[in-house]
């Protein structure tokens, strides 16, 4: 007669067990590929005389469609000027699905708030476009919801919320000098060390003031309103500092 055990003389671990009389390996608790995609365990077979041998058993956990797409982030905000709208992408939404292969492929569609079909979304990339620029200025604020669906039909539990603010030509939008900043930072640098800066400019012909947009020391977007003389028109430049909090 042969007795089967796992390493250490046990017959089970958190997820699997081995039957000591037959050597059958059984599931002890549910397996989740997204958590542990592969398991490996040594099985020891010992005869009555005490002689033993060992075999390594590898178990590959295959995927089933048990996850829904999740938007990260779930809320999006974008501001457009009504006199400078093109059909190019204004925003890219991102939803991820922890499943793999076909189960992890996500498509996007606008589920509400687009009754006049002003906006259009690329179902594969999640890029949002203005399809009918001439209708954009009908409202100063548009709210639309976007749903993500995987290849098996599972939909996101929570839709993405997109808020599109339409600005007039008199109130210009703050613009960063560069769309992307890349810096190298040494490890173990002191707290509150400055690691980068972001430059932005905004212009306005409004008689009430200008909008200051920058990045505060915690790395968060900071806005403050500064009054200026009536009928003045200027471009205001500011620099935000990013530091380790």
Question: What does this 3D model show about the protein?
Answer:
The protein has 245 residues and is mostly beta strands. Among the domains are: 3-60, Immunoglobulin-like (Sandwich), CATH 2.60.40; 70-167, Immunoglobulin-like, CATH 2.60.40. Helix content is 0%, strand content 47%. The chain has no helices and 19 strands. It has strands at 2-6, 16-18, 25-27, 38-47, 52-60, 70-71, 75-81, 89-92, 95-96, 106-112, 119-121, 127-130, 141-150, 160-167, 175-176, 194-204, 209-215, 221-227, 234-243. The chain has a 4-stranded mixed β-sheet, with no helix packed on it. Strands 1-4-5 form a 3-stranded antiparallel β-sheet, with no helix packed on it. It is elongated. It starts with a strand and ends with a strand. Residues 205-236 have low confidence and may be disordered.
Main attributes of the structure:
single chain, 245 residues, mainly beta, Immunoglobulin-like, 4-stranded mixed sheet, 19 strands, 47% strand, Cadherin-like_sf, cell adhesion, Protein dachsous
């Amino acid at each position: 007669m042969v007795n089967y055990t796992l390493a250490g003389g046990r017959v089970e671990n958190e997820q699997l067990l081995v039957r000591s009389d037959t050597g059958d390996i059984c599931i002890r608790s549910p397996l989740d590929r997204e958590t542990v995609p592969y398991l490996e365990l040594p099985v020891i077979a010992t005869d009555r005389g005490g002689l033993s041998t060992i075999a390594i058993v590898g178990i590959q956990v295959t995927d089933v469609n048990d996850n829904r797409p999740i938007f990260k982030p779930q809320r999006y905000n974008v501001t457009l000027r009504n006199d400078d709208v093109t059909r190019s992408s204004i925003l890219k939404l991102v939803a991820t699905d922890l499943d793999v292969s076909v189960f992890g492929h996500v498509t996007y569609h606008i589920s509400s708030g687009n009754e006049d079909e002003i906006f259009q979304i690329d179902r594969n990339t999640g890029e949002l476009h203005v399809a009918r620029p001439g209708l954009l200025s009908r409202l100063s604020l548009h709210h639309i919801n976007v749903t993500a669906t995987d290849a098996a039909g599972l939909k996101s539990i929570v839709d993405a919320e997109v808020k599109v603010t339409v600005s007039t030509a008199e109130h210009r939008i703050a613009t960063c000098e560069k769309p992307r900043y890349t810096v190298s930072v040494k490890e173990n640098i002191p707290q509150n060390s400055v690691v980068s800066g972001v430059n932005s400019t905004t212009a306005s012909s409004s008689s009430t003031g200008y909008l200051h947009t920058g990045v505060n020391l915690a790395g968060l977007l900071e806005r403050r309103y500064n009054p200026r003389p009536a009928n003045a028109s200027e471009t205001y430049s500011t620099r935000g500092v990013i530091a380790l909090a």
